[in-house]
Amino acid sequence: MTSPNKHLRLSLFTAAALTGAMAASPALAAPQILAVAQTDLALPVTCERGECTVELTTICLQEHRASPNPGAKYYVHGDRFFDLTGTTPAGQEISLAHLPVSITAARGHSAVRLTFRETELNKYGPLAVSIAVPENLSLVPLPIENDVDPQTEEDILLATGPLREAATQLVDLDTNKKGAAELISQAINRLPERGRASDEIRDAARAGFHSVSSRSGFEASAKDNANAVVRDCYESTAAGSLSFRGCLGSWHDRMIGKLNTKYWKSLGAGS
């Protein structure tokens, strides 16, 4: 016959185990809605190992929500979309806006990855692919299962409406930090996502950046800031574990982080 004390110990053990299991399963909540920074220059899309990808600059529109984890999935809100274009060797431009793309968080709320399968380009032959971002484009996180704090229709309308417009005024139109970050993105997107780039690729990325920067219409201060970051990252990553791209990404995120803080403070001040 089982003693009452043993039943009690088993009950307590079961309750503790269930409590521990519940605590070990983190509550899931939708991350922040993001604004994609408008581009003044088209960014190169690179294809490697069957996947074409480009990294885009973003800021957070909802300070009270958590930043997205790497790989968190997003979709484009509203009628606006990216200008995805392929250019043939003869110079003919082909719209690729119809291609099925995937958008995921890359580094917190400062950058996202847009990807599609390289096989989508096979029927066109050789193409140089680029992307441009129009004004007021917003990304909403895809719904997740068991979401304890989902994005409501009101949340989405607020973030993609007046909050996005405020971001346009404070971030997209910033001619210094935003311009420097966009120029740095030109270098980032000319380097491989994983591992260390070869000396040839590093040199080509830096040369491509300088070519674009010199021909751009950005203010001298933005060019100077971007040039200094690219130079320092190129020199400091000639050896060691940190990659050229990783260094550039870190500096890019610092600049965008300052703009994001400026945006949040403006909302707090009632602007």
Radius of gyration: 23 Å
Spans of at least 5 consecutive residues whose pLDDT stays below 50 are 1-25
Count of distinct structural domains: 1
What is the helix content?
Answer: 40-55%
What does this structure look like?
This protein is of the alpha+beta class and 271 residues long. It has one domain. 41% of the residues lie in helices and 19% in strands. It has six helices and eleven strands. β6 and β7 form a beta hairpin. α3 runs antiparallel to α6 (244-268). It is globular. The N and C termini lie far apart (73 Å).
Question: Helices, strands, pairings?
Answer:
Blueprint: H1 4-24, E1 34-36, E2 43-44, E3 46-48, E4 51-60, E5 73-76, E6 83-87, E7 93-95, E8 102-105, E9 111-117, E10 128-132, E11 137-141, H2 153-172, H3 177-188, H4 199-215, H5 220-236, H6 244-268
Antiparallel strand pairs: 1-4, 1-11, 2-10, 3-4, 4-9, 5-8, 5-11, 6-7, 6-10, 8-9
Output the keywords:
alpha+beta, six-stranded antiparallel β-barrel, 41% helix, single chain, four-stranded antiparallel β-sheet, 6 helices, disordered N terminus, globular, 271 residues
